[in-house]
Amino acid sequence: MAFTVLAAIVAAAAAALHRYVSGLRRNIAAARKTGLVYLVVPVSPINLAWQLTFWIWVPIIKLLPNSLWERWLFVMIPEWGYATGQTHFDKLGTDTFMVASPGSLVLYSQSAEVIHRMTQNRELFPKDVAKYGILEMFGRNVLTTEGALWRIHRKVTSASFNEKNAAHTFAEAINQTRGMLNMWFGPEGAKTGMTKTIKSLEHDTMTWALNIIGYVGFGLRLLWPGQTLPRDIDPRLAKYGSLDPPPGHTLTFADSVAVMLERIVAIMVFPEALLRILPFKFAREAYKGKINYVQYMSEFLHDKIEETQSGAPPREGMDIMGQLVQSKYSEKAALASSATAKLDDSSIIGNAFIMIVAGHETTANTLHFALLELANNPATQRRLQRDIDALFGADTDPSTWDYEKSVSPMLASHIGACINETLRLVPPVTGIPKVVSHDADQTITVDGKTHVLPAGLACHLMVVCAHRNPRWWPARPSERTGKKTDLDEFLPERWYRSSAAGSSSSKEAEREEEQLDKGDYGGFQGSDVSASFYRPVRGSYLPFSDGPRSCLGRRIAMVEMGAVLAVIFQRYSIELAVDEWAGDAEVEGMNSEERREVYRRAQEKSRETIRQADSVLTLKLHGGRYVPVRFVKRGKERFVSDPMLS
Ligand code: HEM
């Protein structure tokens, strides 16, 4: 008996070893055939189990002699592109390389040509939808589907992304920014002109963005602490805005979204029944977040179906849930032929989830990093304020700002430059997975040479690396760090520079535009970058992706972020908090040089913290990391008004 068991184990191990070796040999041969540079690694870097546990294995591997791992280990660290991307592409001497492992063959590229080809040819290089399981747990949706099914989702969801709703978003972003400022200052800060040290900037920007998409996208009035719901609010919607859990719930709606996003990996990995009984804090939170969120959304769906079937007039704003529900439950949908595609209930909930996640976490993180970079860069902040004064006036009431008149100049000013530069440096989505169509091999051109990629090949577009590739961006030697280029630095002025080594002339840019896929996939059709700025080569700047699968919400995101920066910096400045090095009384007694010295320490620490950002869903500060800041009324700055501080 013991011998039989042993023999079975040996046979299974031999079979596994055979699979391992033959998989590796097959993938190495396929990598070699493409003619591209390739690395060989022992485990697939895109294997989910590896990605969840890499932090255990990497330190163990590093105990081995350097020569065994130093060439390839970087690619096994999921956020390598953001942390150290350029160095590795430099070392390999190429913008496009392959990684062969026993379980996979993957192409990584930061080449604008390659990225452009893949984003423009949706059918030849579809999205690698298998990688989007985490975003499909509540139902299939526009972000996670491909082909004919994606077209149906895109048609239904894109209907409300228009200029009217962008204007509505602008007004609501102004309103929510005031709510956030009121919370930060409180009655005490309003008197002194300075907030206390804020450690919750990331959390607050998430609340800000959720409140906006909640209202503009879903008609839900979500509140800041101390605010109350309007008296005439529809009682069915009141529970979503409640600051305490309403009857039948153990979390508020906003907390259910926040907790669910915080614990999304646990929700995906563990079955609900197991989360319920596991005696760990993370499991309790994940379970609570999930069941509350699911319950809110099914109640919301139910209410919307009733509203649609009662023939109630359309609501103001995007009413994303209303649009989704109408596609299935309206009278028109009922009369439509059965051949007309409709979403099922699970897809309605799935799309609502994706709009909430895509619509708030991305924008919130961009705002969070933009604020931190402005605190890190006082000279940029001062220039931003000058542009805001010129555009909106220093004393005007933001609620009177006119969207149509303001939007283009706003995005062409230093406000736009700061947003673009944040999205270049710290894009919420650092990489986009595509795949070579399973139907046929496809070609790419790298530096004038054609390479054939095998059908089904996984391709990873290294967005964050393309954004820092000196070949495509106007770069100068860094004045601050002495590095070869300043591309790792936040320099919105870059957007006024005229050219980069690999940048195209405006004629070439026009020709490129002509070759684009001009299909109408709904949403905003214009460029992400104002015409007055440096125009990056197509494929080198894609914070919102590009081509048919580009972000549906990019216009409203830009508008939202422009509005919040304008409202905050019209009256206030942001400063890094220096409590770690000096108390308020000490700062009071310091001369200018001493203040500069203490601020420089805070800048150094802040930059180091930002470098440690990584992605679960989007790029942000995880693991309790934060940068403490204060907001001060303009004229009351302790540090950032000093012209010697840049
Ligand atoms: C700074 C803010 C934002 C950034 C950086 C951003 C970025 C992106 C990126 C990179 C993609 C492509 C993802 C992929 O292919 O895997 C995407 C898709 C998408 N985004 Fe955004 N997004 C932002 C804001 C928004 C907002 C505000 C909404 C909606 C309210 C939104 C809705 C969507 C949707 C629906 C898609 C899927 C489009 C499709 O596949 O057809 N996004 N976004």
TrEMBL record:
Cofactors, names only: heme
| Residues the record lists as binding heme | 551
| CDD domains tied to this protein | CYP56-like
Q: Which UniProt keywords apply?
A: Heme, Iron, Membrane, Metal-binding, Monooxygenase, Oxidoreductase, Transmembrane, Transmembrane helix
Membrane-traversing stretches: 35-58
What are the start and end residues of every segment in region (Disordered)?
501-524
Of which family is this protein a member?
Belongs to the cytochrome P450 family.
What is the recorded name of this protein? Cytochrome P450
